[in-house]
Write a structure and sequence with these properties.
Layout: H1 2-18, H2 20-25, H3 29-37, E1 41-44, H4 52-59, E2 68-71, H5 88-91
Parallel strand pairs: 1-2
Helix pairs in contact: 1-4
């Protein structure tokens, strides 16, 4: 299912980039639902617990004009066996801005 959603969302992004005017007036059910449900900012917490296809689908759920996606997670605290094992799995597919490391623990003692 994640792969199918990823493909649909990616095609809609291409459609947006190819012809914004047609995208805005399209009555295609997939495009309409995407327009009605897309988010300007997508924040994915514990991103390391998601597979690359799940992350890709969530990434393409961001509005194609802004493409604003923030991921956070700790590779060492990954709970799912299907989650990504390295941040490069994501950055090899998607252009990444400024990766940052958290140097001070935010957890309560």
């Amino acid at each position: 299912m994640d792969l199918i959603l990823f493909i649909i969302f990616r095609l809609i992004h291409y459609f947006y980039e190819f012809n914004r005017g047609l995208f805005d007036i399209s009555t295609n059910i997939f495009v309409e639902q995407f327009r009605n449900n897309t988010k300007y900012v997508v924040a994915i917490d514990e991103a390391t617990d998601f597979s690359i296809f799940e992350l890709a689908a969530m990434t393409y759920f961001a509005h194609p004009k802004y493409k604003c996606v923030t991921l956070s997670g700790d590779i060492m605290q990954r709970l799912e066996k299907n989650g990504i094992e390295n941040w490069s799995e994501y950055s090899n597919i998607f252009e990444c801005g400024d990766p940052m490391k958290l140097n001070v623990s935010y957890r309560q003692s």
